[in-house]
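Researcher: Quick test of sequence recovery. Tokens follow.
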């Protein structure tokens, strides 16, 4: 079974322009073309694009996706490199969550610092946004 680029886009949720970009970057192979020069992709391309999309949805950088795609081409190799990529991404996500929690706490403090019952000239929210030194911690 073959798919047009539009079919591939609909089945994966990946925009046509992104599919073309992945093709240019060598993440998916150059498709066959019809006599009318229309791209025709196969089942293998669909699976590969789903793999890339899922990796992107999980926040993996393109370099990690490239490495995983390369590893998938060597099914007899040990999987320690794939494990490392997953663990590195987990650590990265945990770091971002920690940073977002600090940011949330600071924004909550700022939002609660002003009752809204005085003039803009005396607004604690605007003062806090205008002066990083008023923050209570690193965020």
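Model:
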């Amino acid at each position: 079974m073959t798919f047009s680029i539009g079919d591939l886009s609909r089945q994966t949720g990946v925009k046509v322009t992104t599919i073309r970009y992945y093709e240019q970057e060598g993440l998916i192979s150059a498709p066959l073309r019809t006599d009318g020069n229309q791209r025709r992709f196969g089942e293998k391309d669909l699976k590969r694009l789903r793999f890339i999309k899922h990796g992107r949805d999980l926040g993996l950088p393109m370099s990690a996706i490239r490495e995983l795609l390369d590893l998938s081409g060597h099914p007899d190799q040990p999987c320690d490199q794939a494990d490392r990529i997953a663990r590195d991404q987990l650590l990265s996500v945990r770091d971002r969550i920690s940073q977002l929690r600090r940011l949330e706490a600071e924004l909550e403090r700022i939002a609660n610092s002003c009752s809204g019952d005085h003039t803009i000239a005396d607004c604690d929210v605007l003062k806090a946004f205008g002066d990083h030194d008023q923050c209570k911690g690193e965020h």
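The radius of gyration is 24 Å.
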